Backbone:
């Protein structure tokens, strides 16, 4: 197995890829593992214009999900520094297996965050799912990094005179999904604000951020924009190539025809373009 380099992404299985990383070399893991439901990555999911959404999403069968989760998380445990942390996104369907693996591998749970988004899939006979779980875990609760004034210092007030920092540090995060009208995209992606928030609170410039399941490459792209180092894996070639194109060109969004549209979504992105 050749060594895996930082500031690179790889088109390969993440467990195999992580084996190429030295033990205790990673400062922060942010990841959104594949679903264990029959998610077929329909191009028309969430009302997107069909031709611009890439297909090919690699899902895991529900029966294998527990075993699969243990395998990748075990490898994360080996490569994560004692001062590091991991943020794992999960829908409610997969949550049980994620929680069991966290426990079995003796990670310490720091927070169970709820990400509340807008525009869930409309339902007629049940409530609309409009949240995701995000498990914030670490190896050593005393050594992990956390910068509580990274986004707001304690003097900053809300419109009602409350503490803006307190509000930002509550464990329910109201963050909108991004809609990239007219641009290339994969079927699921995390909004940049979500990744930016985690990076600012739990890492420093120069730290190494790992995403074993890159998809469109959001974690690597936003980490790079915030001057962190990145490394990651994506098993679907088309997604990997898309993520690599974004990183190579140093752009956030890419038009369907390869052009670079106005970059409207990322608050800190102004520095890059
Ligand atoms: C939920 S998506 C990640 C989306 C990503 N956070 C984003 O913002 O674009 C999960 C990704 O994991 C990939 N994947 C599934 N199994 C994998 C494996 N064994 N190794 C690496 N990638 C894998 C899937 O192809 C999919 O792109």
Residues:
């Amino acid at each position: 197995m050749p060594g895996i380099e930082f500031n690179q992404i790889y088109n390969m299985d993440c467990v195999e890829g992580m084996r190429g990383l030295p033990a205790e070399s990673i400062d922060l893991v942010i990841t959104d593992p594949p679903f264990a439901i029959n998610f077929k990555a329909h191009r028309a999911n969430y009302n997107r214009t069909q031709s611009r959404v890439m297909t090919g999403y690699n899902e895991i069968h529900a029966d294998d999900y527990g075993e699969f989760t243990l395998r990748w998380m075990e490898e994360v445990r080996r490569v994560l520094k004692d001062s590091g942390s991991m943020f794992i996104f999960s829908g409610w369907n997969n949550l049980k297996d994620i929680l069991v693996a966290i426990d079995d591998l003796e990670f310490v749970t720091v927070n169970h965050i709820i990400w509340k988004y807008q525009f869930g899939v409309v339902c007629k006979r049940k409530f609309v799912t409009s949240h995701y779980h995000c498990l914030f875990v670490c190896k050593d609760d005393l050594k992990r990094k956390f910068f509580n004034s990274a986004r707001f210092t304690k003097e900053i007030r809300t419109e009602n005179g409350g503490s803006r920092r307190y509000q930002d540090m509550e464990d329910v995060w109201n963050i909108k999904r991004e809609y990239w009208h007219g641009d290339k995209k994969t079927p699921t992606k995390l909004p940049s604000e979500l990744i930016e928030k985690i990076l600012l609170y739990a890492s420093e410039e120069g730290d190494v951020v790992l995403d074993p399941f890159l998809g469109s490459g959001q974690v690597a792209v936003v980490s790079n924009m915030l001057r962190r180092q990145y490394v990651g894996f994506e098993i679907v070639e088309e997604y990997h190539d898309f993520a690599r194109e974004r990183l190579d060109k140093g752009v956030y969004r890419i038009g369907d025809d390869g052009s670079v549209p106005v970059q409207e979504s990322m608050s800190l992105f102004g520095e890059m373009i």
Observations:
- Strands lie at 8-10, 26-31, 80-90, 108-116, 131-138, 172-174, 208-211, 229-233.
